[in-house]
């Protein structure tokens, strides 16, 4: 396999495996202490990747929140926050989204040839648009290879479900941080953690559980998904 960044998947779900509810308001699946943990993970990365639906529906800023962590990055000659990356098939990305308008780090959009021209016109100078070729879907492996060529050594994938499914079924994840919130959604119309697919980790090949931590009222499950798993960054609860 060509060079690719170390790839960490980070997400939260309800006890019954949903990423969100069906109401207009975003369902909170974490707490302040866990948000701070995620912030620390972001600060260790070179890029944060989400799908276009997440950009549209959640309007995330994808910035390092802690002033001390931003200062530490700047002191190392890095942008205050990692680069932001998104994947889109149709190019339906609003230039007013916080993804594009907040932070000084580079913003990169990967999309097929059929959408690339419209995306460049719509976004103007807000982002670098990378044409991924004639295929209708964006190949996540090709995205990681391109990010590696751009100097990205560690990328954090934060969802949504379609993107998580793509990376997991393609066996491109090295580590998974899965936070379980103490609630049920109970509505099959809500988005699930992943969709249908052929996943490498099944009954005959189980994922390795590398750590479990209680963070307030949520549980963090940490899985090693490849032999590149970085075991050196372990929280006190994991030990």
Mean pLDDT value:
94
Identify the quaternary structure here: single chain
Number of helices: 7
What is the CA–CA distance across the termini?
A: 33 Å
- The arrangement of helices and strands along the chain is EHEHHEHEHEHEHEEE
Strand composition percent:
15-25%
Helix coverage percent of residues?
25-40%
Estimated structural class? alpha/beta
Describe the protein's architecture and organization.
- The chain is of the alpha/beta class and 239 residues long.
- It is built from seven helices and nine strands; from the N terminus they run βαβααβαβαβαβαβββ.
- The two termini are 33 Å apart.
- 37% of the residues are buried.
Give a short summary of the structure.
The protein has helices at about 30-45, 50-60, 65-75, 100, 115-125, 140-150, 160-170, and strands at about 5-15, 45-50, 85, 105-110, 130, 155, 175-180, 210-215, 220-225. It is of the alpha/beta class.
Considering the chains and any ligands shown, give keywords for the structure.
disordered C terminus; 9 strands; single chain; 9-stranded mixed β-sheet; 239 residues; alpha/beta
């Amino acid at each position: 396999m060509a060079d690719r960044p170390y790839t960490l998947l980070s997400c939260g779900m309800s006890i019954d495996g949903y990423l969100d509810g069906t109401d207009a308001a975003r369902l909170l699946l974490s707490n302040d202490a866990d948000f701070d943990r995620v912030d620390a993970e972001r600060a260790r990365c070179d890029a944060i990747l989400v799908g276009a639906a997440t950009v549209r529906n959640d309007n995330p800023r994808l910035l390092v929140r802690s002033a001390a962590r931003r200062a530490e990055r700047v002191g190392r000659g890095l942008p205050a926050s990692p680069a932001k990356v998104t994947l889109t098939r149709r190019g339906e990305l609003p230039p007013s989204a916080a993804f594009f308008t907040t932070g000084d780090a580079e913003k990169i959009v990967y999309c097929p040839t059929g959408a690339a021209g419209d995306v460049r016109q719509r976004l103007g100078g807000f982002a670098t648009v990378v044409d991924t070729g004639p295929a209708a879907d964006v190949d996540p492996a090709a995205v990681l290879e391109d990010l590696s060529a751009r100097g990205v050594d560690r990328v954090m994938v934060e969802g949504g479900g379609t993107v998580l499914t793509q990376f997991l079924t393609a066996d491109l994840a090295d580590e998974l941080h899965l936070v379980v919130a103490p609630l049920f959604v109970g509505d099959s119309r809500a988005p699930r953690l992943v969709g249908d697919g052929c996943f490498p980790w099944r009954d005959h090949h189980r994922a390795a559980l590398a750590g479990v931590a209680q963070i307030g009222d949520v549980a963090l499950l940490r899985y090693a998904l490849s032999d590149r798993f970085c075991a050196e960054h372990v929280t006190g609860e994991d030990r």
